[in-house]
Design brief:
This is Aspartate aminotransferase. This protein is α/β, with parallel strands linked by helices and 395 residues long. Helix content is 42%, strand content 13%. It contains 13 helices and twelve strands. Pyridoxal-5'-phosphate binds next to helix 5.
Length: 395
């Protein structure tokens, strides 16, 4: 075999993603771009905010000597200071620039953190439904994913189930709030309870257990809801995030990780993370993007636009009989599949030119995901097709 057996196995298991793309492309060719309603990708259709373009122009017109060179593997001081300042405001804790490492997106940050903390065979708890890449990232660094279901009615963490899953090999729990694919936000009280459980378990098992809080949607919350800061709830916590969604820059690969200043042996953790950023081959986050986002820490895309899209879909799909939790943030809906087989449902949706991702892809058969980071006009034009699909499938 020309490639590693494990990778071949992963490709085979993930082949539904490829099939979905192929089917989408075939539908577009047959019916035309505007007649296919593609809700599959978390790739924002909105443009970055005006302030981003201004910064980009400024930088292009006033290039600084050395601005394309390597820098400290952790990133520019100026950028780390800007991020730290935001986190100080958010947490009221003394987060230092030295506790921030700039990374190639949230995906890069997750890999850096996992490489930094995992010994071979150690376990990482992930909460189903989960972001599809978590299992691959954990495997990248010799870890073992342990799936724990959230509450199936609310998609909130099931603290008893998490507690029961923690054992002598547990090294970390990945949280993702606002959540992909469910759109729920974990409230402060839940995070604080989790913090207390972990403190107890750390004592009992005599080992450090991290919460990795994956937050690329943290600035996309609706109805004025606040996304609580994990630092105030869990001592051994690290934030991983990016500007892929809040500044609509997913292709630019700019993000960061930040350690809770109260973390046990925080300096050692950061030293490890900076080293791993280097040896994973990322070396450092893109230089130009670091310069730009330093000045954009209080800027984001128009959140009202996403909230309006959520409202249109939630209102109409609920009326049609689809059951779902109303998202509080992010840009996904995760309704229950009206057919027992979610893959069959997604196939049936394709007959109406609606492209969706089956819940099975998120470790959650029996549901499907709608990504509504697409043009509002496509959402509105898709409603008659949804009506037909509902008449066929919703009992
Ligand atoms: N984590 C979650 C939950 C995501 O949904 C995504 C992207 O969709 C990522 C991480 C990766 O983000 P990035 O593009 O910043 O690597």
């Amino acid at each position: 075999m020309a490639i590693a057996k494990k990778v071949q196995g992963f490709i085979d298991r993930a082949s539904w993603i490829r099939r979905m793309f192929e089917q989408g492309a075939a539908l577009r060719q047959r019916f035309g771009e505007e007649n296919v309603f593609d809700f599959t990708l978390g790739n924002p259709s909105v443009e970055p905010p005006e302030a981003f373009k201004q910064e980009l122009l400024d930088l292009a017109q006033n290039p600084q000597p050395g601005m394309h060179r390597y820098m400290n593997n952790a990133g520019y001081e100026e950028t780390r200071a800007a991020v730290a300042q935001v986190l100080v405001q958010k947490s009221d804790l003394a987060v230092k620039p030295s506790q921030v490492v700039m990374t190639c997106g949230a995906g890069g940050a997750l890999n850096v953190v996992l490489k930094t903390i995992l010994n071979p065979g150690e376990e990482v708890i992930i909460l189903a439904p989960f972001f599809v890449e978590y299992k691959f990232y954990i495997d990248n660094h010799g870890g073992t994913p342990v799936e724990v279901w959230t509450d199936r009615n609310t998609f909130q963490p099931d603290l008893e189930a998490i507690e029961a899953a923690i054992g002598p090999k547990t090294r970390a729990i990945i949280l993702n709030s606002p959540n992909n694919p469910t759109g729920v936000i974990y409230p402060r009280d839940t995070l604080e309870q989790l913090g207390r459980i972990l403190e107890q378990k750390e004592k009992e098992l005599n080992r450090q257990i991290y919460v990795i809080s994956d937050e690329p949607y943290a600035r996309l919350s609706y109805d004025g809801l606040e996304v609580p800061c994990i630092f105030n709830a869990v001592r051994n916590s690290v934030i991983v995030t990016s500007h892929s969604k809040d500044l609509a820059l997913p292709g630019e690969r700019i993000g960061y990780l930040a350690a809770n200043p109260e973390m046990n042996e925080v300096d050692l953790f950061i030293e490890g993370a900076v080293f791993c950023n280097r040896v994973l081959g990322f070396v450092n986050a893109p230089a130009l993007m670091q310069r730009l986002v330093s000045h954009l820490q209080h800027v984001s895309v128009d959140i009202q636009e996403y909230q309006d899209k959520r409202d249109i879909l939630y209102l109409h799909l609920s009326k049609m009989g689809f059951e779902m939790v109303k998202p509080q943030g992010g840009f996904y809906l995760f309704p229950r599949s009206p057919l027992a087989d979610d893959i069959e449902f997604v196939k049936q949706a394709q007959n109406h030119n609606i492209l969706l991702v089956p819940g099975s892809g998120f470790g959650a058969p029996g549901y499907f995901r709608i990504a509504y980071c697409i043009d509002r006009s496509i959402i509105e034009r898709s409603l008659p097709a949804w009506e037909k699909l509902a008449r066929e499938t919703v009992k």
